[in-house]
Amino acid sequence: MATHAISIGDAEYQEVRSHRLLGFLFFLISDTIIFSSFIFSYLYDRSASAVWPPLGIERPGLYLAAVNSIVLFGSGVTMHLAMEAWRHANRSRFAGFMIATIVLGVGFLSGQAYEYTHLHDTWWGSVFGASFFTLTGLHGFHVFIGVIFLITVLLQTRRGVYDQSRYFGLTAATLYWHFVDVIWVALFFLFYVY
Amino acid sequence: MTISELQREASHAHIHPPPQGFVSRYVISFDHKVIAVQYFITSGLFFVLAGLLAEMIRAQLMQPHNTLLSAQTFSEAYSVHGSAMVWLVIIPVLTGGFGNLAMPLMIGARDVAFPWLNMFSFWLFPPAGILVFLSFLYGAPQAGWTEYPPVSLHTPGTALWCAGIFLIGVSSTITGINFMVTIIKMRAPGMTWTRMPLFVWATLVTAFLSAIATANLSAALAALFIEKIFHVPFYDPANGGSPVLWQHVFWFYSHPAVYIMILPAFGIVSEVLPTFVRRPIFGYRAIAYSSVAIGLVSFMVWAHHMFTSGLAQWVQLPFMILTMAVGIPTGIKIFSWVATLWRGRIRLSTPLLFVIGFLSCFTFGGITGVMLASVPADIHEHATYFVIAHLHYVLFGGSIFGIFAGLYYWWPKMTGRLLDERLGKIHFWVMFLAFNATFLPMHWLGLLGMQRRVAFYDNQFEGTNLLPMVAHTNVFVSISAFVLGLSMLIFAYNALRSATRGQVAGPNPWGARTLEWMTSSPPPYYNFAEIPLVLHGPYDYGKPLPYANISQDLATEPVD
Amino acid sequence: MNETRSQPLLDTEFWSVTVLLTVISALLMWGVVIFPIDAWLPEASTVSKDIDFIYRFMAFFSVPILVYVNGYIVYFMWRYHVAKGEDRTATGSDIHDHPGLEAAWTIVPSILMLILGVLSYVVLPKYYLASAASVATIEGIGHTFFFEFRYPGLAQPVDNDLHLPVGKQVTIDLTSSEPDIRNAVIHSFWVPEFRVKQDMIPGMIVPIHITPARIGTFRIICTEFCGVGHSDMVGKVVVESQSDFDNWFKSEQHMQSNGATQAPISIAGGDAAAGGQKFAAKCTTCHGTGAFAERKVGPGLGNLFHDPDHPTLVTGKPANADDVADIIEHGFSGDLGTMPNMQVNQLTPKDVANLVAYLESLHK
Questions:
Q1: pLDDT digits (tens, 9 = 90+) for B312-344
Q2: Is B173 on the interface with A (CB under 8 A)?
Q3: What is this structure's pTM?
Q4: How far is CA C185 from each of CA B387, C175, C188, rounded to the nearest angstrom?
Q5: Which of A102, B162, B361, B532 has the least C-beta neighbours within 10 A?
Q6: Residue B467 covered by a domain
Q7: C93 within a domain of the structure (yes/no)
Q8: Which residue of A has its CA nearest to B172?
Q9: B119 Cβ contact list (under 8 Å, min separation 6)
């Protein structure tokens, strides 16, 4: 998408960029609706149930999730620092923080995999399991896509796809990564704290 | 300069040549006009199939205990009929078809914001439809287009149905995002919000609803699919799920979807009326802003489909009040359209006739809608033929009449040739009369005690003497429905005939003033040789055209 | 511009048409007022009259809207259409809007809606709040595909047959079970003459309150699609005087306590051909004539008596004519599902005998 960005004029690039930015924001809004729908389902089941979690179901442990959350939020910070470095044209610092973000993202996924394999509850075992695994699984899938996205844009910067004034792919990746962070705040509160 | 000279000049004005080769031109096309035609053809095929299912339903109901279809086949027929008409016909035609055909032209753009996404979005649609119809092979869903669990979890085809509707939902979301960006960012210079044609206003609100509400449908369908395949408990109470939860999430989408199915038809009406009445539309701002109001309120009324589902009374009350509130902006639109007819110079062309049919039927459907909003009244009417009658008055009398108005209106823009007026008028009168004969008696059937989704009905019960009348009414309704189905053949013949014998239209056969008529028919690949400049609103009949970069000759010569 | 400014915007002809439409409206509105709803669909519960008042109110104000909208459409089309030979490029009035008129058609419907909202709000609680204590609470349970009613004081449930004393408020606790929550689906309880409808939802118990106001027999209709037998899921409600109700209740009690000693239906001399016709009419909703494992709602009965796998009946015994007749007669309710009894299926003892003979004749 960005390869022919070089060949068009600045005014036209700015126009195309504004279209893509707006389209991407609308995509994130509709993605938020998907998460909200499942969250509504979870809260509905919860309010309909006399005891929560349902009898015989254990809540997943808070400590692992807390550590995992710190890993994910940390990746949000490194992502922010990477973009700051890009704006100051510091390519090596940018690449360093991008790699840190990717490693932290993979770390989060590993933590989630560990949690999944050590839980007694199953996806199909109860309404709690249904919501828990669907929502955290959907979020994990988003993190996975995000990691692929970050690796792709990192490789693209190596090939010189983006320059100092034209880097919408990076902007989109950043927005997406922060979006995934924010969704996690809601999920963490719902499943481990509330 | 005459029209024909202009036409020749416009066709030389390509900025880039269109893609060569059959596949890139007509199959994997990025051109919004070609994609629109793809939507029309695909939806047209599904319309025929879903229409045949409707005739099967009416054939079965000719007799109280007909053996034509088994109860199971009958349930499959109405479920796929409803699903196909909603998701494979009305929504794709109004948004994908008319939205793609007219909206970019009307805002003076060369295409939508993301042509590639537009192509992708279309190609999700045929597989979606095939999946829905393929479910017949495995035991199609039987619980109607609403597919309430737990009963919907008992039919094997539900999984295919979910997958199909999920695809069309994703397609709808993508198109919605694409159109919102297009309308917000790509209007021609000078086209302020209040100079936008009303169809564009309607498409903007529809796009918003498609992007937001349909995402929620995708989530609900995914959950139903997961439950069907992996037995993950969301909706089945046997495993701790809640069947009422599905009703909430389904209607949170499907009520806005009702407006996804009617707002573009409102837009078509608002375009056709001023063109054939030849005067400015009455209350432009009221019509535009009432679309926005309807769109916003539509998110807060979903539980009015659930007044018998055991909701608490304090929950029902706000939903009842807000549902009634939707009637007010809708009324404003209808009254403004009627006022537009006043002191016009009315040319009784086919598109206008369909708009008049729309106004008459939709007003009736709107009024029965208010009757369904009042909770005590709804408790009696819910899930009866009264609801069937109401929804066909708004979706057939509203959306389908709007679709035909749009087809007759934009056919020359799409194909370059006019449809035959005389055939068009015959089509209208047969369709209008058969439509009312089919659906008007259903109001009585429902109020007197005929529930929906039944393959057999009572004609003898010790307590009541009305049941023979119910049986006779059903025969009348079925015969009317067959005539209604046959009336579509007139249109099919007219459409095929226009390809060879249709009068060549020229750029602006109706003497309209919106931008899609300010270019040749069909328009060149890049729509406009020069991007037009917009100086005023589009409906000031009797004044010079409000555009620069556009020939002033285009406004004056209606040919009909 | 074809407008001649000297003419008033609204001329005599317009006002004449308006008067005509008003007269038509008034006549139709009068028709709405005198329309005998009760004669068409009896107002058989105390809440019916309130709801019919709401209907009358809605129809009353809908009539003028329909008459004016359609009337003006036809009138304007007739008056302002361009005839053959006239200038087809001429344009009409350039009036864009009229704030006063637009305010009117916003405010008047708003007021009507508000009144309708208040009316509905006043009637609504009558469904939900018992005005006085109910004389009894009956359990109403939806099954595939019949209604089961459990009366306090009756040991056995009554299927598809609800008896209510006139003029007394009863509460019916509605739910759905099969007989437990597994395989249960949503049904709905509707008596059109009562104007009462409530979904029967598995896992939820929703009470409704009914005060029958009219003696008679009415249909109980399932309005929520519940499976292949949905069309046939119709019961009856019998509203009777207190003494008739007491008699029914006593005889039901008597029958139930004597049920065990009742002579079994004689299955001798069953006619397999007649049984086959009954089977097609009454049983094929739930049972096929394939192998035992080919289930529709219930098992396939094609070789019930001659199955090489020797399936056992729900009674736990291998297939035998007496037990099969017993199941058809009394129905069945257990872990494997539910089946309505012969009263629900409207079968005579002769039919039962014929059906058993038919089932025995299959796959010999």
A1: 888 888 999 999 999 999 999 999 999 999 999
A2: yes
A3: 0.90
A4: 22, 10, 10
A5: A102
A6: no
A7: no
A8: A30
A9: B28, B29, B30, B35
